[in-house]
Amino acid sequence: MLVALGAGVALTVKIRVEPTPTAERDPAAEQALPWLKRVAQNCERYDRAEQEGERAQALKDNARLVASTVVASARGRLESKRVSSDGSQILFTLAVGSAKFKPSLLHPIHADTEMFERIQQAQIGSCLQFSVRTLTAASILERSKVCDKDYFADFAVIEPCH
Q1: Residue 127 contacts residue 119 (beta carbons within 8 Å)
Q2: All structural domains of the chain
Q3: Is residue 17 very low, low, confident or very high in pLDDT (cuts 50, 70, 90)?
C-alpha cells in the first residue's frame, strides 16, 4: 500500500494480517485440573466470536469460572523460584502441564512462614502438592485473560508430594 506523506514524499507500507492463534489444549493438565477444559472451551468461544458482545461474554464467563475455582491437592512441578530483593517473600511458579500458578500480589508467601521454608527447600523440578483459595488471570490482555493458563493464586497449602 502506498501512503502519501505530502511534499512529494510517499511511503510504501506492507500490511500482514496474522491469523488468530488457536486455543491450545493440554490433556494432562485438563485431567489433573478438570476446570481447565472449560477454560479451553471459553477460549475457543472467544476466538470464534464474530461480535464484540460474544467475545465480552466469553471473557466474563471465564472470569467467573476462574474466580469461583478452588484448587484442592493438585500436584505441580516447581518451575522457578527466587527470594525478593528485600528477603521478605518468595516468588515462584508451579506448573501443572501448561498451566502456571504464581503467588498473588495480594497474598504473597512471606518469609518466616512454613510455606516459605517448604518452597525454599524444594528443588527446581520437584513435585509439590498445593491447594488454592482463589485464582485470578495473570494477564492484562483481553484474549490472554481467556486463553492463557497463567494465574495468580492465593495458596492455602504447599507441601512436598507424598
Answers
A1: no
A2: 27-160 (2.40.50)
A3: very low
